[in-house]
Structure formats: C-alpha cells, structure tokens
Amino acid sequence: MTRPLALLVYERLLPGSQLVNRLQDLGYRVQTSADLAALVGLAQREKPLVALIDLSFRNADVCESIRALRTHSDTAHVPVIAFGDPKDRALQTAAHAAGATLVAGSDGILEQLATLIDRAIDVQ
After folding, report:
1. In this structure, what CATH number is given to the domain that contains residue 117?
2. Cα–Cα 20 to 30 A to 78, which of 50, 52, 71, 108?
3. What is the pTM for the complete model shown?
C-alpha cells in the first residue's frame, strides 16, 4: 500500500526539516518545496493528502498562494495547515481568510502534528 503524501512548503530550515522527519515518522511520504509560485502545479501533479505551508516566507505572498491552492478546481479539496509565529495574529487571520483549514504556531506544531492532520482531514 502506498503511504499518503504530505506536501510541505517552507523557507526556514527549522522547523521545515523537523517537520519532514516528523511526517515520515507518522508514515507519510513528504514532497518539499520552497517555491510558493509552483504550489498549485505541484499539488495538481503530486495529489497530496494534506499541504503544510510555512507562513514565514520573506519575499512571497503566502496567503495568496494558499488562496490559489484552495480556489483551483483541481486542488480545492486539499486541506491546508498553515504554521508560523504564534504572536502574529494578523497573519494567522489572513491565512484563515485565504482558505487555510487550520493555522498553528510553529512553536507547537511538531508535538501536535498528528492531531492537526487528523482534524484538517476531518474538516474536509
């Protein structure tokens, strides 16, 4: 049986590499990318069960990329877990408004990852 695929889009080495390891420990195959502009095409091609997106990109509009993923007919079903600075409430609110299924703080995502994925998939 093929393991489910998690698409992980991040720019920062930490927590990105830690999330790769944790996802693999949970039984997921992991496709990573640092290219937000390619997000929709990557999701169309790879067909992930869930997408995890770091909100802390320096030179890109993460919320616009989430919106594009959630509004494209081929990828609208993919649950999105966005994560970032827990103190940046404005960015968290913007990520929800853009279509993120769940938004988590990067300080606790590793410990809560299995529960967050289950909740995100269940919401869909």
Report:
1. 3.40.50.2300
2. 108
3. 0.94
Euclidean distance between CA atoms 123 and 107, whole angstroms: 23
Q: Where do we find the tokens 């990520």?
A: 95
- DSSP structure string for 54-88: ES--SSS-HHHHHHHHHHSTTTTTS-EEEEE-TT-
- Work out the angle between the directed axes of helices 89-98 and 62-71 (0-180°, nearest 10): 20
pLDDT in tens, 94-104: 999 999 999 99
Torsion angle (degrees, nearest 10) of CA 85, 87, 93, 96: 40
Strand order in the sheet with 102-105: 29-33, 5-9, 50-54, 80-84, 102-105
Structural domain total, the chain: 1
Tokens of 45: 């091609």
